Structure formats: C-alpha cells, structure tokens
Amino acid sequence: MLPCAALVLALCGLLAVQSPQAAASGRALPAHTLVGYLHTSFANGSGYTRLADTPASWDIIDLAFGEPTSATSGDIRFGLCPKTECPNVETKDEFKAAVKAKQAQGKKILISIGGQNGQVQLTTAQARDKFVSSVSAIIDEYGLDGLDIDFEGHSLSLAANDTDFKNPKTPVIVNLISAVKTLKAKYGPGFTLTMAPETFFVQLGYQHYGPGQWGADPRAGAYLPVIHALRDDLTLLHVQDYNSGPIMGLDNQYHQMGGADFHIAMTDMLLTGFPVKGNAANVFPPLPPEKIAIGMPASPHAGNGHVPPAEVNKALDCLTKNTNCGSYKPHGKWPALRGLMTWSINWDRFNNWEFSKNFDTYFG
User: Fold this and answer.
1) pLDDT at position 213, please?
2) Which entry of 67, 90, 152, 311 is annotated as an active-site residue?
3) C-alpha distance from residue 360 to each of 39, 236, 251, 278, 340 (Å)
4) 152 is catalytic
5) DSSP secondary structure string, 25-46?
6) What's the mean pLDDT in 246-269?
7) Which of 168, 231, 280, 297 is placed for a possible disulfide with 306 were both Cys, Cβ 3.0 to 4.6 Å?
8) Cβ(333)–Cβ(320) under 8 Å?
9) Percent above pLDDT 90 for the chain
C-alpha cells in the first residue's frame, strides 16, 4: 500500500490538479466586484481593446468568446481577433503576458463560452467530455482563472417531461452540469465560475417552466436547474437585465427595461427566491447576495435596456440600503450584494468609461 502522501500525489492529484494560476486565483474577490466582457475574438462596432489596456476597475474580465466547432460537438475553440479585423490586436505571447499581469494585480480572467452566436448543446456524453477537454485546453494554454457560461439562444431547453428543476432529465442540462462539476473538481477551489443567463431563462421561470401542457417555449426557465445544481460551486450569477421582454416580478406585475425598477425587481427574485411556475411547493431557493451581480449594458450602443448612472445608483441604493426605491419594494436589504456586470468593457471605453467610473465612485 502506498503511503497517504503518495496516494494524494498519484491519485487525488489527478482529480484536482491546481495550476499555478488557479492557486493564485483563490484570492477572494473584492467586497464589491465589477465584471466586464472583453471583445477578444472580434472587434464589434466599439473597436478592439487590448487586455493590457483595460483599467484596474475591472475585477473579473470575461474573454468573449469561446465558441463550438458546431452546436452539438462540445468542441470549444478560442482565438484572438484576426489582424484584418483588429489591426491593434496583440500577439498571443503579449496576450498571455497581459493575463499574468492582471492576475498579479488580483484580477480574474475567465473564458466566456457561448454568446449570441455560439450555440452549445451538449446532447451526448461524447460532447460533454469534449467540452471538458477543450475548455481545459483553453484554460491551460492561456493560464486562465475559470469559466463563464454565457449560453444563449437555443443552447438550453427543457424536454416536455422535465418539470422539476431540482432533478433535471434533459441531456443538454444534465451534461452541462456534469461537465462544469468535472472542471471544478479538476482545478479545485480556486476555480472561478460565473454565469450570464438572460431573464428568459431565469426569472421567466416564475411564470413558465419548459414547454408545459400548453406547449410554451421549452427554453423558459431552462437555466434554473443549472444554477441550482451548481449553486455551491458558483462564484457569481449575473443575469443579463437587458435585451429582455417584460418579466413578471414577485409583485405579480410586469416590469420593463429602462429604469431602476427593472433591475430591482429582477434582482429581488434571485435574492428572495420564487415558486417555479407559480407552484408554492416547488420554490427556487434564494442565492446569497455575495453571489449576485446585476448585468447592465455599458452604453446605449451596447444593448437594449441601458440606464444612465443615476438609475444604476437608484437600483443599488434600493437593494443594498432600502432607500431611493421606486414603485417596486424589495423583500429585503442586501448590503453584501456583490456588484455589477456589464456588456462590455469595449463599449464602456467607447462611452468614455462612464459605467466603470460610476461604479468606482459609488463604492468608493
């Protein structure tokens, strides 16, 4: 029999191999954290911003995006923006050096998987395993701190017989949960895990969950089983409070984008919990405020639902202090609310850093 130390090296180490960057990333996030997406593989209308040129305001930088070779392959690929599209793009070595420099400043750099164009459907065990190996390869090559799940569009949906978010059956849901748990186990407690679902996949679950008996959209509420299964592993949930239709809040009123009330109502649902599909016997439990950031567009160009700094501050005042509330009254006061997420760092730069400067001013 091998001594205990040898067993740890020979066996346990295979399950939780912490790279140097993962160990360094075990440092706690600031009490109030600013998360931003960096257009890394494309320019968009905002222009390309080098990682080294992102201001120190940003505590978590999500590299957008890793995308699959096909919707069902699970094979995720990531590369820097082509020079033809981004003339000022850094070399791969310069980029890797910038990752290390940001980490030395206490920042966390994650690979964000999905986005608007990156549909990811892990329909098979093979796709699940390929997801794990390909995402690991990206994390290892660039020395990253973890993973952001930004599955949009038709990546996640629920089968007709999948009605209990606590015990999901749909393969794309079950395989995603399994894949993320495998990654977390591989990299250990320093692994940073964030998610950026749209309201349709989360808060809409208060009214609709999956297709239901009337054949509703099978994507409704489809993130709830993923969030619930991974809540202990989750570092931050930052729902996209933008590009959203009207969503019913816990006051049973519809709330629309464009003001503080929408952010207050949507965030209150996460911090208070809510009955899924209105079933009081099937409640999605609240998440701790330390695991919640509010997702907002950085400028009017970045997405529908942008609000000016005054409305951002109203939402923060109401949720953390119970002051400056509008028509929606939250069910508690959460001074430990972690912070804000924005799409994107590039659009914030385009808008003279208004979003990040306001965050820094608000939290001091």
Assistant:
1) 66
2) 152
3) 22, 19, 32, 38, 11
4) yes
5) TTSPPPSSEEEEEEE-S---TT
6) 97
7) 297
8) yes
9) 88
